Amino acid sequence: MKCAYAPYSKFQVGAAVLIRDGRIFTGCNVENASYGLTICAERNAIFAAVAASAGKPAIVAVAVVNRRGVPCSPCGACRQVIAEFGPDAMVWYLGPGGVVNRSLRELLVDGFVL
What we know:
22% of the residues lie in helices and 28% in strands. By secondary structure, it is an alpha+beta fold. The protein has one domain (13-107): 3-Layer(aba) Sandwich (Cytidine Deaminase, domain 2), CATH 3.40.140.
């Protein structure tokens, strides 16, 4: 989160992804003046895991934090990418009443998977 590049939103987010072999990968959000090119922390961490793995990494868990300490669950795009690599993953994030722990299946009902 402290490495996030968020000059437009000023909303710094960090994520950590645990894959089945025990490795943990981190990521942060990186914004761009062309907003559609911005990447979320969750996808940044997942793509780092993919880049460092010989095969398809299996995500076990994802944790998301933000500097403001406000509710911040993964966006729809991130949920879909988590589903690609961890359909049974558990996701931890700050919700309105504190830390939330949900399965990816709860967060992405009827997600697109092959």
